[in-house]
Amino acid sequence: MKPSLLSRITFGVLAWLAAFIMFFPILWMTVTAFKSEGQAIAIPPLLFFTPTIKSFLAATENAGYLRFALNSLIVSVGSTTLAIAIAFPAAYALAFFPGKRTKFTLMWMLSTKMLPPVGVLMPIYLFMKNVGMLDTRVGLVAIDMLMNLPIVVWMLYSFFKDIPGEILEAARVDGVGPRQQMIHLLLPLASPGVASTALLAIILSWNEAFWSINVTASHAATLAAYIARFSAPEGLFWAKLSAASVLAVAPILVFGSLTQRRLVRGLTFGALK
């Protein structure tokens, strides 16, 4: 039974309303970024004003935006590449060679995401200090990789479960080893899922703020720490903070919009039989 015209209009309005509510913080942040500090703190908020780029100039003048952006890029891509390299064979083993403890192992990995990061801040901070990895890209790459690894394993596992095991069994009969199976069979078949997993891991790593702020100072700090620099003990510089936030989220928003189709395709991989 087809929905009525009124139902379609109602659901359309609700969908646009939900989209606007989710997008409103980004819209307001962008509008505030083009205000002066006086206009940004005006009460009631100014809806009509003369735009200015002074906040963007101040945000990039002495803060070293490009260095922070480069660190974010290196950490995001590096942690994602390492997570995929580790999770791929792990998900392969869990999906095609399940055992009695497979479900327990998957739940145990997922349970690590339920632990608040602040609960392990001190031991990880002391460990990184003792091995000389504080304020290093390598240390931050390792942390982000470990934070995203459970999600990456779970996603790859779900994609691999949609691939018929008979294909790999036929390859084993022909003498194809596990490494060749993963590279020449599994990777091409699950490429949409692997791509969407990598894209999601990059976005999660790019947006990660807690560890970047707490285990980096200047050399390896990412854009999350760059934004935090625009808060001061005497208060927040709303216009400059908004400009810095726009500069920080703009690359990942552009990246997400360009890869949206592939991301959706990968997340729905195997949904239709």
Can you walk through the features of this model?
The chain is built from 14 helices and 2 strands; from the N terminus they run H-H-H-H-H-H-H-H-H-H-H-H-E-E-H-H. The chain is mainly α and 273 residues long. It has one domain: Orthogonal Bundle (MetI-like fold), CATH 1.10.3720.10. A two-stranded antiparallel sheet has the order 1-2. A hairpin with a 2-residue loop joins strand 1 and strand 2. The longest helix has 32 residues. The mean pLDDT is 84.
Instruction: State the CATH architecture.
Output: Orthogonal Bundle
CATH fold category name: MetI-like fold
* CATH domain class: Mainly Alpha
Helix content: over 70%
**In DSSP terms, counting alpha (H) and pi (I) runs of 4 or more, how many helices?**
14
- Overall number of structural domains: 1
Strand content bin: under 5%
Shape: globular
What strand order characterises the main sheet?
A: 1-2
Tell how many strands the DSSP assignment holds: 2
**Category from helices, strands and their pairing:** mainly alpha
CATH-defined superfamily? MetI-like
Extract low-pLDDT stretches: none
Notable characteristics:
about 270 residues; mainly alpha; MetI-like fold; two-stranded antiparallel ribbon
Topology diagram in text:
Blueprint: H1 5-33, H2 37-40, H3 54-61, H4 65-96, H5 102-111, H6 121-130, H7 137-161, H8 165-173, H9 178-189, H10 191-207, H11 210-215, H12 223-228, E1 231-232, E2 235-236, H13 238-258, H14 260-267
Antiparallel strand pairs: 1-2
Helix pairs in contact: 1-13, 3-13, 4-7, 4-10, 7-10, 8-9, 10-14
